[in-house]
Amino acid sequence: MVRFITSFFFLVSLGLFFSVYISPEYFPYVGLITLTIPLLLVINAFLFFALLFSKRKLVILPLIALILGWKFVGVTVQVRPVPENPEGLSVLSYNVHMFSYSRNGEDRSTVGQNLIKWLKENPSDIKCFQEFYQDVTTPSRNTIKQLGTEEGYHYSYQIIQGNPRRRSFGMVIFSRYPIVNEGVVLDSRSTNGIIFADIKVEKDTIRIYNAHLESMNIPSEQLNNLDGIKDNYKKTLGRLKRGQVARASQLEVLLEHMENSPYENILVGDFNDVPYSYTYFTLRSKMNNAFEKAGRGFGFTYNKVLFFLRIDNIFYDENIDIQHFKTHREVDYSDHYPISAVFKLNQSQAQDNQGLED
């Protein structure tokens, strides 16, 4: 029986560890089964120590599984000291939920104003927001003016829905530094999209991507209630499946665009995918992840009943150095927590950009 159990979990572990490299376009439910990877790591660790103390040769199987699965430990949790006064280019990413998130009967307008106040006081050089709401007709909700022009920020705003002269919804990049170019990578005309801005930072120029990949499209009342998820599990699975496939398609568009970028890239946003997904590992194979390189703890970014999800990320190219990463779990104004990072642009980056401009 011990041999069967050990062999079973070994084979299942191998299959799941490599499944993160399989696109959901070919295997739609692959992103759902990979959620069990942390549990498998725990099981293999238990089997390893049990077999080690009993001096069974079978110990080699969970040992191999733990070695192959070690990369998942790093994407799950980080242990490192907090740096003192990190200096460099600071970048903030936040899904602001249209500035209207509320819980426990709290007034939505109060939440929105508190959130705007926090964002104004945040000193980040670059601020990227998803699910951004703009109302030109109401001064208290004219967020472009409050967070941008009044604070001395340049901005690139892509409207997904609405009227630019009245009320609109979309994605935005604010920058203390000049924006020399901007554009749209993906416009889904729903609630998602990808935009970019080329930002002149002293002698450097970098490209910032702000992404909001396909949502799970599960009604918020279900996500706030486990019973709601159970009662509607068939619809929930269907939505999760469609979201997985859509994100894989959107990822292809994004990767092609980034490959043609003339500058070093920083990619931020709400990816609606966990670290054990095809989306995450595909990006991880091409870029560094800020949480893995400079974060600490678990870095959970979802502010609902499924609190153990990290679906907001900051990725960056190899030629950029990271100084610090933080998940702002003290900021409870949205269904996501904001994340931020501090970067240092190296000399080779400056020289490359100078060559492009010459």
Automatic annotation (TrEMBL):
Cofactor(s) this protein cannot do without: Mg(2+); Mn(2+)
Swiss-Prot/TrEMBL keywords: DNA damage, DNA repair, Endonuclease, Exonuclease, Hydrolase, Magnesium, Membrane, Metal-binding, Nuclease, Transmembrane, Transmembrane helix
Listed SUPFAM superfamilies: DNase I-like
Record-annotated Endonuclease/exonuclease/phosphatase domain positions: 92-336
GO molecular function, one term: endonuclease activity
Membrane-spanning intervals of the chain: 29-51, 58-77
Coiled coil: none
Biological-process GO terms, alphabetical: DNA repair
Pfam families referenced in this protein's UniProt entry, alphabetically: Exo_endo_phos
InterPro entries xrefs: Endo/exonu/phosph_ase_sf (IPR036691), Endo/exonuclease/phosphatase (IPR005135), TDP2-like (IPR051547)
Protein name: Metal-dependent hydrolase, endonuclease/exonuclease/phosphatase family
